[in-house]
Design a protein that fits this description.
CATH superfamily of one domain: Lipopolysaccharide (LPS) transport protein A like domain
Strand order of the largest sheet: 4-5-8-9-7-6
Number of strands: 12
Distance between the termini: 37 Å
CATH topology of one domain: lipopolysaccharide transport protein A fold
CATH architecture of one domain: Sandwich
Strand content: over 45%
Length: about 180
């Protein structure tokens, strides 16, 4: 497990190097939902989506096969979207700061907590930071958590992972000096 702890620390340090965050304007945008079937419970503020799910909230774009959205009394959304055996769920969001910078991810499940601004990708996951549609950073692993507030990444192995299976996470990091100068 020492290797996994080192990976988690490395990704946390990587996140600390980033200076941009998700677009704050997204918080005040309405949610646009599309699916083959939508079930709405306004009393409980629960929305069920089934079949070719598309969710748009400002610059946030989430796709998948099946989805669930819960809204708490304060108005924060908790979004869970799953893929299917043939395709994964996906997440994309524009970041504040440099023009044309995005966070883009995929996995069997995408979970986004609008209150804490934590994105969790589960099941053969990948998360990329793109600038001008060029990859700046990329993480791959079983489960990836990205905390936009603290700007920290964490990659977790499957619960039943064995030491001989490691490494189960992979990352590609662009040199920070070059990335900083290109802004």
């Amino acid at each position: 497990m020492k290797l996994m702890q080192k990976l988690i620390i490395a990704f946390a340090l990587l996140g600390a190097c980033l200076t941009t965050r998700a677009e704050k304007a997204d918080q005040d945008k309405p949610i646009v939902l599309e699916a083959e079937k939508v079930s709405v419970n306004d009393v409980q503020q629960v929305y069920e989506l089934d079949g070719e799910v598309l969710l748009i909230k400002g610059s946030i774009l989430i796709t998948g096969e099946k989805g669930n959205i819960k809204v708490d009394p304060e108005g924060y959304e908790y979004i869970d979207v799953e893929g299917n055996p043939k395709s994964t769920a996906s997440f994309r969001q524009r970041r504040e700061g440099p023009a044309d910078e995005f966070m883009q991810g995929r996995g069997q499940a995408v979970n986004y907590n609008a209150k804490t601004e934590v994105l969790t990708l589960t099941g053969n996951s990948s998360l990329k930071r793109l600038r001008n549609m060029q990859m700046v950073d990329q993480l791959d692993g079983w489960k990836i958590e990205y905390d936009d507030v603290s700007q920290a990444y964490q990659v977790f192995p499957p619960e039943n992972a064995k030491a001989e299976d490691l490494p189960l996470a992979r990352t590609i990091l662009s040199p920070r000096r070059k990335a900083t100068l290109e802004r």
